[in-house]
Amino acid sequence: MTTIPVTTWSLEQTAPTDLLPSDAPAGDVRIVRAEVPSPEFSRFLYTAVGGDVRWTDRLGWPYARWREHLARPGVETWVAHERGTPAGYAELVAGDDGTVEIEYFGLIPAFRGRRIGGHLLSYATARAWDLAGRWPGLAPTKRVWLHTCSKDGEHAMDNYQRRGFRLFDTRVEEEQEVAAPGPWPGAFPA
């Protein structure tokens, strides 16, 4: 198989005041927490958002693993909707030490370029900072972090930096080149 170099950038905020929120987009855009852990819905979001940018690490997860992951204390899924239709999501994962990772973030391709991404990232980051208030027993958030890579959308890094995230690590690794799987097999032409 062919390998390609993939650059991964890790970014962080270390105080709630680091967040530079974007303006809300025009129109009927709402962000709500999917409070009932649903492997079906989470897998739909994962494949719909990440299918064109080669998110493949969770494609092989069986139902039980999805259910176990989503049921962990401090795992939250925040979903942006435009006029009632899911447009994108952010998955927050609390660590044991007061860190919260925005483990997955993105928009379904049809909703990109409509100013929803900055609003969703702003909202999700604010929810990462106040996550412990919804989960008794978790340490208060001291740090919110995420990573993006050269396979992600062209505006990802700019959006993160505009929201106040600062770069703290860069790595380049060779990865096997894989075709974009799409939200279902054959969704994207080769």
Automatic annotation (TrEMBL):
Annotated Pfam families: Acetyltransf_1
InterPro entries: Acyl_CoA_acyltransferase, GNAT_dom
Gene Ontology MF terms in the entry: acyltransferase activity, transferring groups other than amino-acyl groups
Domain N-acetyltransferase span(s) in chain numbering: 29-190
Signal peptide: none
Protein name per the record: N-acetyltransferase
Lineage of source species: Bacteria, Bacillati, Actinomycetota, Actinomycetes, Kitasatosporales
